[in-house]
Give the backbone structure.
Amino acid sequence: MNMLKLAWASLLSRRANALLTIFAIAISVTLLLGVERVSQQTRTGFGNTISGTDLIVGARSGQVNLLLFSVFHIGNPSANVSWQSFTHWRDHEQVTWAIPIALGDSFRGHPVIATDEQFFNHFQYGQRQSLQFADGEAFSHTDHAVLGARVARQQNLHIGDDVIVAHGTGSVSFHHHDEDPLTVTGILSATGTPLDNAVFVPLAALAAMHGENHDEADSEPSPAHRPSFSDQRVPADDEPEHTHEHEHEHEHEQHDHRPLAEIAQPIDSISAFFIGLDSQPRAIFMQRMINTWGQEPLTAIMPGATLQELWRTLNMFERTLAIVSGFVLLTGLIGMLATLLASLQERRREMAVLRSLGAGPKTIFGLLVSEALLLTLIGIAVGLGLLYAAMLVMAPWVETQFGVVIHIGAPSMVEWRRMGIVLLAGLIVSFVPAWRAYRNSLADGLTIKV
Amino acid sequence: MALSTDSSLTPNGARSYSVDIRELSFHWRGQTSPVIDIPLLQIPPAQRVFLHGPSGSGKSTLLSLLAGVHTPQHGRIEIHQHRLNELSQSRRDRFRADYIGYIFQQFNLLPFLDLIHNVTLACEFSAKRRQYLAEHNKSARDEASRLLTRLSIAPELHHRAASQLSVGQQQRVAAARALIGAPALVIADEPTSALDADSREDFLQLLFEECAATKSTLVFVSHDSTLASMFDRSVSLLDINRAATAATRGVS
């Protein structure tokens, strides 16, 4: 039986205290590693969500807000961008492609993205990967819809099925656009981004649902007057607009089956648009041009730069969390110190017996260090286990809520280093009781102090 | 009890002792007057010595000097040709593991280990005891089991935790631990003081038998002078320790 076995047997005899100590260390390890995990996963998850887009343009607002609602479907646009502004910049000589998106509606809790076929042609994620269709093809009529991979899986929808889009973004909506069922024409392959959770509909379909009427002549709306299509013309039985809507019903029917190619202006205003440029280095000039444009107040952002800004905000948060977990670790270690120190008094007999058997003071020192190391090691292992258990439980929820896929991989270098630091801290803390025991055993010799 | 004089002679004919103390003097750190001042104490091998004296006469101190836990400031203390006063602390620890079996007054056992492991623990710290067992083709566990049975601990108790035993049983387990691997010197520090009169004599008989079997010297400390007649020799600290004579007589 070596020192480690003896330490183990001794710990087992004090298992209530030992378990509490292990638990305290485990929780701090889970926190320390969890903070690191969450930040890494968020970074890679968010970083992989958009690629190849040089600029994102929306109505004048905060940069992070624009990025969050346009790419991650978190939050809402504060105002809209008029279709005229969009076409102005789409047709700019530097611009290779432009994708309009209009947000704000939902289908059974999944966000609805109204866009055009440019989205499927040009939008890229991850390492410049384009969108692929797992089944079917892009929409070509106003009553078509395309589903993200997870939407199709969760709602068990296939090509040819009908979807009914609801007003607003909640999973429980008060108003459904019951009159406007759309037919699924395509299902995207999984991307591991928020797109998996989205339903794609043509802009014209969204406009039709909200009662917009686009004949070529009638389309010269003043841009700033429509804050959100979701708020436009919500039918209510006793409002005059109700009758207005019914007046248009006839035209409505006509629009429902129009091929998208025939529509010049599908909608009055959009939430934002993505831009791909001829030359990426020009993005900064384009950004300034758009930001200082006189005709409509717009905000243009470079996704990478704004992500960096987001990380800087999150960094502070992360650092605070890391500091808090550091203190939790400290508490755990102090708990272990207190437990070991308290046990020394009642173990003076044990030490005297070991001394009588030929154990030197150094062996006694080693015994106490072994005990602390065992406690710390088990604490680290349990903490790691808790972390993986938490990830397994949380992963599906995070994926639904934020569209970020959590990869449950082996611990990273940073995580190994943090565990190493915990072990080292445990070792250093153990020197205190070990030194006390060393001194005691020298002073007590073979006399048993009771 | 007849001593084997052959075994107590060195090859050159000089008499060898299990314990050989000359002009030994020890004082605690920070004090000037010695608690131990023994001009001469010689114990031949395999002798059973009854060591007695009032409290404060230096019994415990002498035992810790014999066990090599403390070192004297002056004089010589030699156990089986090892001069303890010249060894480093870690060498003395190893010496104690190899040559000395120690039995405390009480609380001898680690409560979280079973009896077998409590006994074999003595071999963990001593290469010499393991070697002795290996030479006699015994495993530590078998020998522990044999000794425990010899000391009237029923085999079904051998795997019980030490904390479940009576005090008398615990002292016998402690004796088994002190004796395993045949150490040269067994030191017993009032091992019977917690036992009643009957079990006291039983314990002593068993201890004597096993010491005789391993040819171990026994130094037995007790207040109880009624036991003295069972030993080969009775030594009073008041007679051999000049420091005790002065101090204790001054107090009493």
Observations:
- The domain at 8-251 of chain B is CATH 3.40.50.300 (Rossmann fold).
- Chain B has one domain: 8-251.
- The longest helix of chain B spans residues 197-214.
